Amino acid sequence: MATGTDAIILAALLDHLSGLTFSPALIVALPGIAFPPAGQQKPDSYLQVSFLPNQTETLSVGKGRQMHQGILQVSVYWKAGVGYVKPLDVADRIIRHFAKGTRLVSNDVKVKVDSKPWVSGPLQEPDRVQFPVTIPYRSFNA
């Protein structure tokens, strides 16, 4: 169980992401966990999550409330040479799942997606194309 504020924020964002399903299912590569597992090859298409917390700001004099802010990036990786429509559809589903105004709560920590997520790319790799989806968040805590 997460106890630090950034860990709780990440857990809340990942929990929300886990509520998004695709058919066929897409494997999600989580931050800090070896991917693919030892002895396996990367699938043609998958999601990769990066957690990018930013500087925490104090919003009042003294200890006051702290604003934690950052980005959850969910990159859509897709087999090269089959076009951009399907990976962009996946990116759009992620954007809609984390729509502006989405509110999450975990261990009394409230997290809000404070602006509409967006897709960037395409970033062409030898065997895959990547479309990063940027999800900005903020959390106000004591």
List the helices and strands and how they pair.
Layout: H1 5-18, E1 27-29, E2 46-53, E3 57-58, E4 66-79, H2 85-97, E5 103-106, E6 109-113, E7 118-119, E8 123-124, E9 128-141
Parallel strand pairs: 1-2
Antiparallel strand pairs: 2-4, 3-4, 4-9, 5-6, 6-9, 7-9, 8-9
Descriptive account of the structure:
With 142 residues, the protein is an alpha+beta fold. It has a single domain (6-141), classed as 2-Layer Sandwich (STM4215-like). 19% of the residues lie in helices and 38% in strands. It is built from 2 helices and 9 strands, in the order αββββαβββββ. It has helices at residues 5-18, 85-97, and strands at 27-29, 46-53, 57-58, 66-79, 103-106, 109-113, 118-119, 123-124, 128-141. Strands 1, 2, 3, 4, 5, 6, 7, 8 and 9 form a 9-stranded mixed beta sheet that branches. The mean pLDDT is 93.
Q: How many domains would you count in the coordinates?
A: 1
In the CATH scheme, the class would be Alpha Beta
- Radius of gyration using CA atoms only: 16 Å
| Count of separate DSSP helical elements | 2
Order of helices and strands: HEEEEHEEEEE
User: Major sheet, described briefly?
Assistant: 9 strands, mixed
The share of residues in extended strands comes to: 35-45%
Q: Based on DSSP secondary structure assignment, what is the total number of beta strands?
A: 9
Helix content: 10-25%
N- to C-terminal distance: 20 Å
Instruction: List low-confidence stretches.
Output: none
Mean pLDDT, as a whole number?
A: 93
Shape: elongated
- What fold name stands as the CATH topology? STM4215-like
CATH architecture heading: 2-Layer Sandwich
Helix/strand-derived category reads alpha+beta
